[in-house]
Structure formats: structure tokens, C-alpha cells
Design a protein that fits this description.
By secondary structure, the protein is α+β, with helices and mostly antiparallel strands. It has one domain. 47% of the residues lie in helices and 11% in strands. The radius of gyration is 18 Å and the shape is globular. The two termini are 36 Å apart.
Length: 229
């Protein structure tokens, strides 16, 4: 991410909560991390990292502040959310669940997890509260721009979207195992992880495997351009 963001929550009773999200420093691991962040704790079957070199799951480490926030809010509460960045301030009256879904996507995509590397440019150009259509548009556009840069460097590039579909399949495995991690927190008595599990599922659904069908719904926006081609 280019600069730090701050997600702010203002509840009807006047109570406020906030969570600053700064760029993740490569290789930086905070001290006193919970057990559920260890790499070997429900490690993803497709994880390319080794416990010999990496002690903690990069995505789990990135999600720790979010999990702690769950102990203070309920996903079904209404909230006025404000996201402050260097470029703009975005404010929306919505549910905590919608806000935290956006926040979880940002934290996951900006982590050092190798399986989300294809999403990191989206974290750099984060769009709070994006709809499903906006997410699909941004993911596909980001992927195709990456392929353009690869061709500019003389490297192999995907001529279509097969690589993106493969990334989605890998990410679904990551989400499933992350749910197991967060489920273990619930077993230890943290009610907040009930919300975390629900939001993780929503995040997975916002990045569907059915890219072709989703793009077909976006095509009408390009009709005039396609007629002139």
C-alpha cells in the first residue's frame, strides 16, 4: 500500500472504534503472536512456505488486529464507517459486517502470503466497500495489466484468464484453512471469531471461481466501445 489507511467505526450510541492499516514491512513479525498464527497450525496444503524458515503464517499475522477488533463489535450492528487515506475520505452508513469484509480483504491482500501475491496491487489501490461487480472488474483488470508488464519485460504471460482462475482455486484452499485457524480461537472462548468466520466466507465469495459468467454480466458496459472496434 502506498500509505496508511484508517478504518473508523461510529456506532449509534456514540461509541467509536478504529483500526489503522499500514503497509506490511517484508519479513517483519510482531512479538507475542498468538498460537493460531504459527505456520504449522492448520497450515494450508498448498502453502509453499516451510516451518524451518517461517515461524508464522503471514496472512494470519496480518489478521491479528482484525480478530482482536471482533471482540468489540458485532457483525450485525449498524455503523457509520469512515476510511481515511492520504488521497480521500470515504464514509458510509452500513453494517459492521460489510465494513469488516472490506477490511479483511485489504489485510489479506497486503500480507506476505505467496498465494495472495496476485492481489497485492489491489491493496495498493484499495477501494473501500467495493461491490461484487467492482471487485471482479478490479481483479481482472489488475491481472491483465500484470500480464502486460510481464510481456514488456520479455517474460511469459497469460494470453487469457486461466492463470487467474488457478489463483482463485489456490486462494479457496487458503480461505478454508484460515477458517480452521479462526475456528480454533472460537473453541478457546472468543465469541468474536464467529463474525470472523462469516466474514472470511464472504471474502471467498467475493472472489468467485466463475469468472467467465461474472464477466458476461459486465460486458454491456463495453457495448459502445465494442461496436466501434
Amino acid at each position: 500500500m502506498a500509505a496508511a489507511l484508517v478504518y473508523r467505526f461510529r456506532f449509534p450510541d456514540g461509541r467509536t472504534e478504529s483500526l489503522p492499516v499500514g503497509p506490511a514491512a517484508p519479513g517483519e513479525v510482531p512479538a507475542d503472536l498468538p498460537e493460531w498464527t504459527k505456520l504449522g497450525f492448520h497450515q494450508c496444503p498448498n502453502c509453499p512456505l516451510s516451518k524451518l524458515d517461517t515461524a508464522h503464517c503471514p496472512m494470519a499475522v496480518r489478521l491479528v488486529p482484525l480478530v482482536e477488533l471482533f471482540d468489540k463489535v458485532r457483525s450485525y450492528d449498524d455503523v457509520t464507517a469512515q476510511v481515511d487515506s492520504q488521497e480521500r475520505t470515504v464514509t458510509r452508513r452500513t453494517s459492521v459486517q460489510r465494513v469488516l469484509r472490506s477490511l479483511m480483504g485489504l489485510l489479506a491482500a497486503s500480507s506476505d502470503c505467496p498465494r495472495v501475491a496476485f492481489l497485492r496491487p489491489m491493496a495498493h489501490f484499495h477501494l473501500p466497500f467495493s461491490s461484487k461487480e467492482e471487485t471482479i472488474y478490479r481483479v481482472v483488470s489488475t491481472y491483465l495489466l500484470a500480464q502486460y508488464f510481464l510481456r514488456q519485460q520479455g517474460k511469459a504471460a497469460d494470453p487469457g484468464l486461466e492463470g487467474l482462475k488457478a489463483h482463485y482455486r489456490e486462494l479457496q484452499q487458503v480461505n478454508a484453512k484460515m477458517a480452521r485457524r479462526l475456528g480454533a480461537i472460537r473453541a478457546q472462548g472468543s465469541d468474536g471469531t464467529v463474525n470472523a468466520l462469516a466474514l472470511l466466507d464472504l471474502f471467498a465469495q467475493s472472489l468467485p471461481d466463475s469468472i467467465d459468467a461474472e464477466l458476461a454480466e459486465l460486458q454491456p458496459a463495453f457495448d459502445e466501445l465494442l461496436k466501434k472496434a
